[in-house]
Specification:
By secondary structure, this protein is an alpha/beta fold. It has one domain: Rossmann fold (3-Layer(aba) Sandwich). 27% of the residues lie in helices and 23% in strands. It has 7 helices and 11 strands. Strands 1, 2, 3, 4, 5, 6, 7, 8, 9, 10 and 11 form an 11-stranded mixed sheet that branches. Helix 3 links the parallel strand 9 and strand 10. Helix 2 packs across helix 5. It is globular. The mean pLDDT is 93.
């Protein structure tokens, strides 16, 4: 059993208005390159929160240029025990209306060219990803959002698209036929990397629009998305505060804490020492 340290990846305005004790802004570095920016860390009671703006200050990074490896690596180095993503999404289902929240539980990865693993030549690992989201953290986040007054859908398949453009109508219809419920640009490879870093991961996502599958309506427009985000930002902050205030007093171990236990298959004598050194935070527990 241990104490909770919640890491949050979200919009740059998310933590504003959340009163943290011992709040600090810390510049951080990663061997995987530059992260999106500094972390803001502090406590609410016995729970530590470490936050990073996924797109950087002022939203300067496009979803396809975010250094997801560096961001997750930094969270691990900060001592985070569980990682919560708060994201904006488009809806592929009528019942998942703008303004509601979705506790995502599955992903279909349509991203291209993003570094999706910490491992590679010289150190090969295969983690299990059948259930990419931590059921415990997801349920706690959904409970907190409902307590804050949000309408929450528990479960949903997230189509991770490359972007930065929105979907064509044909793509949107195809994603619906595939069984997608919502669509966004940042869930992958973030969820993959969190699993490799042995960080239980959950996503509480805000629906900002219906994607382009409604033929009788205009397609997705950024201005409409920003209005919904602005109108619901306080709900997201309230949800986060409820989560931090209502976590169980002690953190029981999660099966995701040991995701690398049998995942590394490269023989010890064949392992690349340079890559091993870069993985001191992500995989130090199993590399010794």
């Amino acid at each position: 059993m241990s104490k909770w340290h919640i890491g949050v990846l979200g919009g740059s305005g998310l933590y504003e208005g959340i009163a943290l004790e011992e709040q600090q802004v810390i510049e951080v570095k990663s061997p995987f390159g530059a992260p999106s920016g500094p972390v803001t860390t502090g406590r609410i009671g016995d729970v530590r929160l470490t936050f990073m703006a996924r797109h950087g200050a002022g939203h300067r990074l496009s979803p396809n240029t975010v250094n997801y490896r560096a961001n997750v690596d930094v969270m691990k180095r900060c001592g985070v025990t569980d990682l919560l993503a708060i994201s904006a999404i488009g809806s592929l289902r009528e019942e998942m209306a703008p303004g509601s929240f979705v506790a995502v539980d599955q992903f279909i990865d349509r991203t291209m060219g993003r570094a999706s693993s910490f491992f590679g030549e010289g150190l090969v690992a295969h983690v299990a990803l059948a259930d990419p989201v931590c059921a415990r953290l997801s349920a706690l986040a959904a409970d907190a959002a409902e307590a804050a007054g949000a309408r929450v859908h528990r479960g949903g398949t997230y189509i991770a698209m490359e972007g930065p453009q929105f979907s064509t109508r044909a793509e949107s219809r195809m994603y619906r036929a595939w069984g997608g419920d919502v669509i966004g640009m940042t869930g992958m490879p973030e969820a993959r990397l969190a699993r490799e870093a042995e960080l239980p991961y959950a996503m509480l996502a805000m629906v900002t629009d219906y994607d382009s599958w409604r033929d009788e309506e205009a397609g997705v427009e950024t201005a409409d998305i920003l209005k919904v985000l602005s109108d619901n930002a306080q709900m997201a902050r309230d949800s986060l505060q409820h989560l931090l205030a209502t976590l169980p007093k002690t953190r029981e171990p999660s099966p995701h804490d040991t995701a690398l236990e049998y995942a590394i298959i490269t023989a010890p004598e064949q392992r690349d020492p340079v890559l091993m050194a870069k993985l001191d935070a992500v995989a130090g527990r199993v590399l010794g």
